[in-house]
Amino acid sequence: MEFYDVIKSRWSVRSFDDRKVEQDKIDRILNVARTAPTAKNMQPVRILCAVSDNALEKLNSISPCIYNAPLVFIVCSDNSACWTSPQGKSRGEMDASIAATHIMLAAANEGLGSCWVCMFDPQKLSKEFGLAENIVPQCLIVVGYPSSNAKPADRHFDRLPLSETVKYV
Questions:
Q1: Residue 162: inside a domain, yes or no?
Q2: Which of 5, 33, 122, 146 has the highest CB neighbour count under 10 A?
């Protein structure tokens, strides 16, 4: 798919069918996520791929926003590997966000739907998946084949004009 078509075609899918995502597609998505830029190229992004019934059940107890997705990327940052600015600000959340965006766009390129989920309990997730203290869950990206009744949210295509969001200096 052409790059701008991928961008324009992606929307937040909140209803998935039961079809599993093929491993070759998962691998391509992960390889795209791996290329995401990170501060000082420290590469602190860590990703858990939830595909098992057990992992998906755990996630359903942690977030109401899994939407029957057969695949969830748990995008985390490793605080022991993040670059920290001279002002003391860790860039782990930013690095994970860039990787998460790459995941969503790669999924769209594979003919899959996705949705960024930030409504979850990070402490419960860390406990359920046995994450080390330095691994911080930043977001969930639910992925799968959209169900036949899935459609973009009514406001999806509403965008402010550039004149309201951009200032040339």
A1: no
A2: 33
- Give the strand order in the sheet containing 135-144: 45-50, 71-78, 135-144, 113-117
Instruction: Spell out the residues 6+ positions from residue 111 whose beta carbon is closer than 8 angstroms to its own.
Output: 145
Domain holding 86, by residue range, is 3-151
The CATH number of residue 9's host domain is 3.40.109.10
Domain count, the chain: 1
125 in a structural domain: yes
Q: Hey, how many other C-beta atoms are within 10 angstroms of the C-beta on 128?
A: 15
pLDDT tens-digit readout, 87-137: 999 999 999 999 999 999 999 999 999 999 999 999 999 999 999 999 999
Residue 169 lies in a domain: no
Residues constituting the chain: 169
